Amino acid sequence: MRKFLLLTLPFLLLLLACQAEPVEVEVTRLVEPVEVEVTRLVEVESTQEEVNIAIFHPVLGNSFTKALTDGAEAVAAEMGGTVDIFGADPAFDAVAQSNQIQDAITSGKYEAFIIYAADGVAVVPDVEDAVAAGIVVIAADVGIGPDARTYVPIEGVRSYIGRTGIDHGGFLGEMIVMACEDVDPCKVGYLNGVQALTIDQDRVE
């Protein structure tokens, strides 16, 4: 069974603690399933001062955002951080999420944002405002910038932890081909997430 451990918070707190330079990573495609055990990238002692982190979700209440929230809160508690969770209301509404981010900037409460964007393009001005205010910004699951098909975030975003819709869809396509290898005819049904989102449109493509 694959074991996954949220890597976002240790990486974020390490950046805050030592202002490390961003790390370049090479992304490769898996050609067949493999079993892997993922361990924490860094081991960092609790920070001397409490780090206040805001996480912005496009929606609350689904299993993915709950898992991200649970992992973030658990790791932050271990490492001396606090986490506040915000969910766009209405769900997946870029304007509502923008208002939440701007309110959080104005509050002056937070040293770091983790942004799971409702719209990676629409959120750019908010991210630029956060960076200008000295807030560390990490993008989660949806790239922030004009190109949704790149892993490279806009200037000022410290890291992007996620995937692109094109690559994710490609992985799914590979799995379909493998599953259908000895099945003729092979009929496949696909239930999309939110068709209005660029990442879901790219995933289907």
The biggest sheet amounts to: 5 strands, parallel
Detail the poorly predicted runs.
1-8, 17-31
Written as H for each helix and E for each strand, in order along the chain, the element string is HEHEHEHEEHH
Query: Helical content, roughly?
Result: 25-40%
Strand content: 5-15%
Q: What general outline do the C-alpha atoms trace?
A: elongated
User: Using only CA atoms, what is the Rg?
Assistant: 18 Å
- Structural class category: alpha/beta
Number of strands: 5
Number of helices: 6
Q: If you average the pLDDT, what whole number results?
A: 78
Q: Report, as a whole number of angstroms, the end-to-end distance.
A: 29 Å
Strand order of the largest sheet: 2-1-3-4-5
Write a structural description.
This protein is of the alpha/beta class. Helix content is 36%, strand content 15%. It contains 6 helices and 5 strands; from the N terminus they run αβαβαβαββαα. It has helices at 8-18, 63-79, 94-107, 124-132, 165-179, 198-204; strands at residues 51-57, 81-87, 112-115, 136-141, 157-162. The protein has a 5-stranded parallel β-sheet with strand order 2-1-3-4-5, with helices on both faces. The radius of gyration is 18 Å and the shape is elongated. It starts with 7 loop residues before the first helix and ends with a helix.
